[in-house]
Structures are given as C-alpha cells and as structure tokens.
Design a protein that fits this description.
This protein has 299 residues and is of the alpha+beta class. The chain has one domain (2-282): Zn peptidases (Aminopeptidase, 3-Layer(aba) Sandwich), CATH 3.40.630. It has helices at 2-21, 68-77, 95-110, 156-170, 197-202, 208-213, 224-230, 240-245, 266-270, and strands at residues 39-44, 56-60, 88-90, 114-117, 123-127, 136-142, 145-149, 179-184, 254-263, 276-282. Helix 1 (2-21) packs across helix 4 (156-170). 40% of the residues are buried.
Length: 299
C-alpha cells in the first residue's frame, strides 16, 4: 500500500536525522555516545573545541521494522467516532481522543520514555541523554483528527519518532541531548474553532481570555477548561489563565525540532494519486531562516 510504505520510509529516515540533531553543537562524537560496531560516518562537527576539530560524527547502523509504524497507526485509527471505512474522527478531549492518548502513552512507556503531561494535555515522552541539562531535540505532531481525516495525518509525527527512538536504542545509540517525543494537544480547530492550541500555550502565544470565549460545539455552554478537566487535565487549575500559564516552555527548552507529516486529503489521493509528505527542521540561532518548507517562486 502506497501510504504504508511512505509512512515506514519517513519514519526510517527520521532515525538518522534525529540522531544527528542529538549531537550538541560544537561537540564531536565520543566513544560513550555511539556504538563502536557497524557505525557509518557522516561529516564532522562544526565549531568544535580545541583538539576535537575534524572528529567524525558517527551515525549508528539502525533498522526500522517497516511493519511496526503502519500497524500502530492502524490500531490508533480504530479509536475513532467515524463510521468504519470513512476515515478517522477524533475530536479533542472526547472518549476516543482519551483512548488514543492512552495508546500513545503505552507506546512511549514500551520504548522506555519518561512521560509527562501538562495542564492542557500536551504529552511528552523523553529519552534522557547523557547531558540532560542541554536543550533537548524534539519531534512530534498531533493525534486529534478532523472528521473523516486520513489515519496518517498528524499521527505519523507522533508514532514515527517513538519507533525512531526504539530503533536507535536497539542500535546501541546513546544521545548526549535528550530526545523528546511530543504529542500536541488540540492541534485541529474542529471542536473549539482554534488550531494549535497546545503549541500556542507552550510558546506563550495564547490569550487565555480568548480561549475562554470559544464555543464548544459538543457541549452547550461548555469551555475548553471544562472539556480538558473532563478528560483529566488541569484538575488543579481554577481557570483558563492558570491552565495556559502552566504550559509555557522556555525558549531554551528545545535545541531543534523535527515534525514528520503526511498530508492526506481525498483530492490528493483520488484525483492526483498523491500523498504528500514533508519534513522541516528549524533551529533557534539568529539570523532567522526562511519560513519552513518555503520555496521561492521561479523567475
């Protein structure tokens, strides 16, 4: 199946990318950070300290089971309010969304990740590096789904990184930076009419008063705070202001972030026969890069 092979291929490619991102800037590979057997070498560390310039960065030889990620995505797709065969419907904080969250957390736990959840339901699964105080490498996406969406849309970016970490562990890789899988909460605007709610809160770009004003399409007179608490989040917060404030992350929290994404839609698949996948890597140091995935117009 075309989409299954695409999902597995993107997840496999992420292994090497995430491994390279986990090398701290200015730190060359050392024996305690990488396996000594079956390691290929790609490039050398830039900005290295005295005596380490030119040292190769070792990338472990890893294997990703091409059946694992598609099978897990299929399992997650069964947690849906859509009729069978009509795609996936998983609105934020519904019973099926909570079931999906629990499934993702079981995968994180099986991969040996340290799991935490914030007051709004963003889920973090961390593989602690040998230098845990360094800003982490993040990779993630969302698992809430608009009505009748594709089963890979968003979810690949959550499940793919978990398998990537598992594959790196099997290869004997030990990162210096911690590597963290992130499942953003309320990425889709379906229930409350606002997208990227969890991401906005983490970036301190969400107005709690505006969030409180949004209507819940599922519950009369319902609010985001009420829905989150019904799903088990923010139970110790008294209002939207406190809930949002507790989710803010420092600008130094992540060193870099990778999102795997397969964009799915009926027109792409039915009329063009295409499933488009894209990945963007952004890093914080100035000067700022062009917008992610930006392609300048042809002259």
């Amino acid at each position: 199946m075309r989409s299954r092979s695409a999902a597995a291929a993107v997840a496999a490619a992420a292994v090497v990318v995430v491994a390279l991102l986990a090398v701290p800037s200015g730190v060359a590979a050392q024996e305690d950070a990488y396996p000594t057997n079956d390691a290929s070498h790609m490039g050398s560390a830039e900005g290295c300290s005295e005596g380490t310039c030119g040292a190769p960065i070792a990338v472990p030889s890893v294997e990703v089971d091409i059946e694992t990620v598609p099978a897990q995505l299929m399992t997650l797709s069964e947690m849906s309010d859509a009729e069978p065969g009509t795609g996936v419907t998983r609105l934020i904080f519904t019973e099926q969304d909570v079931a999906g969250r629990n499934y993702v957390k079981t995968l994180m736990a099986a991969a040996g990740l340290v799991i935490r959840e914030d007051a709004m339901g963003n889920i973090f699964g961390r593989w602690v590096g040998s230098q845990p105080d360094l800003p982490a490498v993040g990779s993630g996406s969302h698992a809430d789904a608009i009505p009748q969406s594709g089963l890979y849309d968003g979810c690949l970016g959550v499940i793919g990184p978990i398998e990537s970490i598992a594959a790196l562990k099997r290869a004997g890789f030990q990162p210096k930076r911690s590597i963290e899988v992130l499942m953003f909460t309320s990425e889709e605007p379906t229930r409350f009419g606002l997208s990227s709610v969890g991401a906005r809160a983490m970036a301190s770009k969400l107005d709690p008063a505006y969030l409180a004003s949004l209507k819940d399409i599922l519950v009369e007179n319902g609010t985001f705070h009420m829905a989150a608490q019904h799903a088990g989040y923010g139970l110790n917060t008294k209002d939207h202001t406190e809930m949002v404030a507790r989710c803010a992350l420092s600008t130094e929290y992540y060193d870099s972030f990778l999102e795997l994404h397969i964009e799915q839609g009926p027109l792409l698949e039915r009329e063009a026969g295409l499933t488009v996948s894209s990945s963007c890597i952004s890093t914080p140091p100035p000067p700022p890069p062009p917008p992610p995935c930006f392609l300048p117009p042809r002259s």
